[in-house]
Design brief:
This protein has helices at about 5-30, 35-50, 125-145, 150-165; strands at about 55, 75, 80, 95-105, 110-115, 175, 185, 205, 210, 220, 225-230, 235, 240-245, 250. By secondary structure, it is of the alpha+beta class. The chain has a five-stranded antiparallel beta sheet. Strands 1, 2, 4 and 5 form a four-stranded antiparallel beta sheet that branches.
């Protein structure tokens, strides 16, 4: 299903996007050396409930998972990149942590992710990889607008990632979003310009470039959810929810 939001619901989408940005900013500031991932999940749960919102993850049970996700935020560390299930792990100096959060409020969902290095040790290769996903996200957003096609957005993202030297996995990528977290169209992180669905005002997209340092192959943890690099290399992931407007694209989950 491809959902087009009318102006009144777009206002709700802005509200949900601001909430996701606020929660992610708080979780990032509190995720320091010595923090347990289960505490990060509890903090997310409390903030979502306090805002009168709902987590899109707790009952999330797609075909590729193993039962409901059962947590409120994805926490992926180092070689984990997607669907990182919170567990009893204490963050160490130099860990590369990705927080991925999707929340619904007022009948509209928003989804965003941020990768960052914990503590004072900042491995250059981790910093470079995070930067590449952030630049690819900015390029994808710049390519989005009324009349542009999904392939234009995918091509913009993939061009940045490829130029930075990373292989691109197309199993998982961006997606439509609206009354539910995952909708059509699928937005791969590389593609051919001029192809695919033509973007229209009122369409919401969650764009999410992610890479692994030296591979494009994923493996799944025993938890049935957490996706890791097949080689054990580090990974990074950046994501925003955007709204296609009459004159371009509006970032809904940018920190205020």
């Amino acid at each position: 299903m491809i959902e087009i939001l009318e102006p009144a619901r777009l206002h709700r989408a802005r509200d949900t996007g601001a909430l996701v940005a606020d929660i992610l900013r708080t979780l990032r500031s509190r995720s320091t050396v010595g923090t347990n991932l289960l505490d990060v999940d509890r903090w997310a749960e409390a903030m979502i409930a306090e805002a009168g919102a709902l987590s899109c993850y707790v009952d999330y049970a797609p075909p590729f998972g193993r039962g409901p996700f059962g947590h409120h935020v994805c926490t992926a560390v180092n070689d984990a990149v997607l669907h990182g299930r919170p567990h009893d792990y204490t963050l160490a100096d130099g860990d590369l942590l990705t927080l991925d959060l999707a929340v619904s409020r007022g009948g509209v969902a928003a989804d965003a992710a941020v990768s960052f290095v914990v503590g004072g040790t900042r491995p250059p290769e981790s910093v470079a990889m995070i930067s590449a996903t952030e630049r690819a996200l900015a390029a994808g957003i710049a390519a989005a607008g009324p009349g542009a096609r999904v392939g234009d957005v995918s091509h913009a993202i993939g061009t940045v990632l490829g130029a930075a030297g990373y292989a691109v996995n197309t199993e998982y990528g961006g997606h439509g979003i609206g009354s539910t977290m995952h909708q059509d169209p699928h937005v791969p992180n590389t593609g051919r310009p001029g192809r695919g669905y033509a973007l229209r005002p009122g369409l919401l997209l969650a764009l999410e470039p992610w890479v692994m340092a030296d591979t494009a192959e994923l493996v799944t943890d025993a938890d049935g959810w957490t996706l890791r690099s097949a080689t054990g290399c580090r990974t990074a992931h950046s994501e925003h929810t955007i709204a296609i407007t009459d004159d371009g694209a509006e970032i809904l989950t940018a920190p205020r």
